Amino acid sequence: MQRKTLRTDARALVESCAGWNSRLAARRITQFLDRELADSGLSVAQLGLMAQIASAGDDTLGALARSTGLEQSTLSRNLRTLEGQGLIEIAVVESDLRRRAVWLTEAGARRLEAAVPLWRKAHARLAKLLSPDLPRRLANQAEALIDS
Fold it and tell me: What structural domains and CATH numbers belong to the chain?
């Protein structure tokens, strides 16, 4: 039997911690996809955010924050970059001045549309390395943690 030490406890933590391992997996997948999408001029995070905006039924920042799982401050920081590139617009909702809405500009829609074929190709390569449904299954299962 192996003696318990800080090193063995730390090794067990690294090998079994859901938080650490999910972040490691996310970083590895993100790095892979960012390399694959480099020609689009968008990171996978930017592409995903733009796709969320394009597909959303509710265009408010609050709804976008909920659907992306991002804090409002993190979301705003990420959106400022896209807004600075002219890919999205953010405006106050006229009926409620406390709310802001976000949408793709024409340039943003064209950039997203041009990136989709690269994204498909990247995911086809990724599917050869990882189970194609693994990321969505993990995200779906993690929904149970929202109100826990």
Answer: 37-128 (1.10.10.10)
